[in-house]
Design a protein that fits this description.
alpha/beta; Rossmann fold; 3 domains; six-stranded mixed sheet
């Protein structure tokens, strides 16, 4: 059974259609990524899914219930990790979990019975009585994750869960998140970190200008949309080098600032050529999800 099914979702603000016929489905126990540049329509889609914004048209079934008609009931089965932590600074770690659990109608005894396990899961064992001011940013983010699981949700919505964290904290959260689908928890993830999406998501969709423009597994999207190898060329007049050489040595290339991105299936001729060039440096790597994202949505900044 699908934990979330969205069909033909449309939302307008005035004359601007910000979500234009979006359809997708997330199976139970699956991590699904919803990616896109700023202004693509991701946040509006999430708000419609959670019943916080009414769509113009389309059908949403969240945990088997129609939204917005039964949105409040459906949200009782959902956990949410917002983009910005909203923990209560006046409460201890345990008190934040206790008060939040009451919003779901849980008895205090039931909540207290879950606190130790959730803190262990979040790498916060022994911190139940700690004050918020004593927690690092990574600890607060992990507490927000633990809090979102207090109601044993069927679906967990993660809105950019690792923004602003150092690499150690990000990797710890990734390890915790990987365990959730194995426990039957469905995960809906939005992130601007393509490596995060590639690590965590079973499937994902890329959204731009209110529409889904690609959907599939990370590996399938890379194979479908991008050449298998990438060589990034830097150095003195790399753009000038590209004008004279890149088109004959690569399948496709892009010049961005002082960097030339060469996309190709066979890198040997290009690498042999670059080894003979003075003043040029290069990075040879396999294609990744970020290459796909930039090809489909462009490299220009979105404000």
């Amino acid at each position: 059974m699908a934990s979330l099914r969205v069909t033909g979702l449309r939302k307008r603000y005035g004359t601007m259609e910000v979500v234009a016929g979006v359809s997708f489905e997330i199976k139970r126990g699956e991590c699904f990524g919803l990616l896109g540049p700023n202004g693509a329509g991701k946040t509006t889609t999430l708000r419609c899914v959670l019943g916080l914004t009414g769509p113009v048209s389309g059908e949403i079934r969240l945990c088997g219930l129609p939204v917005p008609a039964r949105a409040r009931e459906a949200r009782m089965r959902v956990g949410i990790v917002p983009q910005v932590d909203n923990l209560d600074p006046d409460f201890t770690v345990a008190e934040n979990l206790l008060v939040y659990g009451r919003y779901f109608g849980l008895a205090d005894a039931a909540i207290r019975g879950r606190i130790a396990g959730l803190l262990e899961f979040a790498g916060l064992a022994g911190r139940a009585d700690a004050n918020m001011r004593d927690l690092s940013g990574g600890m607060k983010r992990r507490l927000t994750l633990a809090r979102a699981l207090i109601n044993d949700p069927e679906l967990l919505v993660l809105d950019e869960p690792t923004t602003g964290l150092d690499p150690q904290a990000r990797h710890l959260i990734w390890e915790r998140l990987k365990a959730l689908p194995q426990r039957g928890v469905t995960v809906l993830l939005t992130t601007h970190f393509m490596d995060e999406a590639e690590r965590l998501c079973h499937r994902l969709a890329i959204m731009d200008h209110g529409r889904l423009i690609a959907e599939g597994t990370p590996r399938d999207l890379i194979a479908r949309h991008i050449e298998p190898q990438v060589v990034e060329v830097y150095g003195e007049d790399a753009a000038g080098w590209a004008r004279e050489n890149a088109s004959r040595l690569s399948s496709r290339f892009e010049v961005t600032g002082e960097t030339v991105f060469c996309y190709l299936a066979d890198s040997d001729p290009l690498l042999a050529h670059l080894d003979e060039q003075r003043g040029l440096r290069y990075l040879h790597r396999p294609a990744n999800l970020e290459d796909v994202f930039l090809k489909l949505t462009g490299r220009e900044l979105r404000d």
